[in-house]
């Protein structure tokens, strides 16, 4: 799934994209954003991202194709996508309904650049989409996005074994079933993006996926993960893990 923003006004596009990034983070919706100013660019990338995707489309685009026509063409390849129209012209809201593009919402530009008034409308639309996704795809795997070098990598959360803080650096090591990544960030920051209830983050320097714990020696404070890595904790600290496992 990709979230597309198509807005030809650069200032408005950047501001809307930033708002979306913030709200997606708050809602733990790990969805990458593609921000474009030209509708043909959106259409050209659709074969690589068949959807269902999310689309925030400005209606009055300075192009041969306006937002409503763009939505019609999107529907041809992504009939289940979520289309949200964005416009200062609220009088065109009825037109979006009768255009047979099945929009999910209409976002007015009246309060654009006023985050206090604009953000609640934006969040309500995203919550509606999130609720529908949870109903239609209840078992859809959750992902964690990390930046490794110049690349953005999406990792399935159920493939994560543990995350370890790198001492004296604002970096963490992310260990998966088949790889290791050292990335910038903090334990707290990554923990906020983990949605499953099997992640234990009661340690200051570690987050453990309890589904990948092979053995635990509560007396010695040794934890062996499914890949064979052995992690060592103090006896006092290991009690927190024991309590967490018992509660589950």
UniProtKB/TrEMBL annotation:
This is Response regulator. InterPro entries: CheY-like_superfamily, LytR-like, LytTR_DNA-bd_dom, Sig_transdc_resp-reg_receiver. Pfam families: LytTR (PF04397). GO terms for molecular function: DNA binding; phosphorelay response regulator activity. It comes from Furfurilactobacillus milii. Residues 144-247 form the HTH LytTR-type domain. It comes from the Bacteria. Required for high-level post-exponential phase expression of a series of secreted proteins. The modification 4-aspartylphosphate is found at residue 58. Gene3D superfamilies: 3.40.50.2300, LytTr DNA-binding domain (2.40.50.1020). Residues 2-124 form the Response regulatory domain. Keywords: Activator, Cytoplasm, Phosphoprotein, Two-component regulatory system.
